[in-house]
Amino acid sequence: MKGNKQLKPILRWMGGKSKLATEIIEKFPKHTCYVEPFCGGAAVFLKKPRSKAEVINDFNGDLINLYRCIQVHPDELSKQAIGMLHSRWLFDKLKSQNPGELTDIQRAARFYAINRMAFGGRMTAPSFGYGRSTAPGLSAARFKQDIELLTARLDKVYIENLPWADCIGRYDSADTLAYCDPPYWQTAGYGMKFGIDEYVQMAQLAKSMKGKIIISVNNHEKMQQVFDGLNIEMLTIKYSCGNIGKGGVRKESEELLIKNF
């Protein structure tokens, strides 16, 4: 694996792995082809060293359209920065638009802007986000900078919009590493249905595929049962609830890291 400048996600994404990325990457075995079937905000992909072949994939067509436009049409996309101001008026205007009537470039800019302005980056029924102690999430300058940085990182990367299992199957080999970060079990807000049968299929695939796989899921008894027989370790993540200096508290959450090696 070749080194690269570590980048941060340009989007706010539910279940993102920014805080656990380093710990997860340390578990990566040697590989030639790296695959992320649930890339989302791509925190792990952006932080890891480059691999000879890399694939990012997601079920969300708007997300993948954004990444593809950044990769292939960065200059045209940058022109959409005009008028990008973190405002409730723009947020409501963009939400009211029909994405089907927009070009791919316009749709990509719209998706980015809504995400950066939405409370918590939540894209299912998004609400306008604001703060009394934080800077606005959207600005024209930041949009242009994000495009410039990510364009270079996405060079020579395969960008797919496939069902997760199809993506793994297409790129599976003895030299493949797949990192799966599916929706948390029994957690709403992902904008997709992901039933227990999907986790069962993932466990079966982990046991039968040629390559190696690492899976992140929330620590739940049901998840431990589904992935029984694989190598399971527990990671602890600390997060803050509210401003620590003003009475907020630090909490811990547990996550399972599952491997087939």
UniProtKB/TrEMBL annotation:
Segments spanning the bilayer are none
Query: Which InterPro entries has this protein been placed in?
Result: Ade_MeTrfase_dom_2, M_m6A_EcoRV, MeTrfase_D12, SAM-dependent_MTases_sf
Q: Name one GO molecular function term.
A: S-adenosyl-L-methionine binding
Q: Which residues bind S-adenosyl-L-methionine?
A: 13, 17, 58, 181
> What's the short name of a Pfam family annotated to this entry?
MethyltransfD12
Source organism, top-level taxon: Bacteria
Q: Which E.C. number(s) belong to this protein?
A: 2.1.1.72
Q: Which UniProt keywords apply?
A: Endonuclease, Hydrolase, Methyltransferase, Nuclease, S-adenosyl-L-methionine, Transferase
Would the keyword Protease be found if you checked this record's keyword annotation?
A: no
From the UniProt record, give one GO term of the biological process aspect.
methylation
Give the reaction(s) catalysed: a 2'-deoxyadenosine in DNA + S-adenosyl-L-methionine = an N(6)-methyl-2'-deoxyadenosine in DNA + S-adenosyl-L-homocysteine + H(+)
Family under the similarity heading: Belongs to the N(4)/N(6)-methyltransferase family.
Question: Which protein, by its recorded name, is this?
Answer: site-specific DNA-methyltransferase (adenine-specific)
Traced from the root, the source organism's taxonomic lineage reads: Bacteria, Pseudomonadati, Pseudomonadota, Gammaproteobacteria, Methylococcales
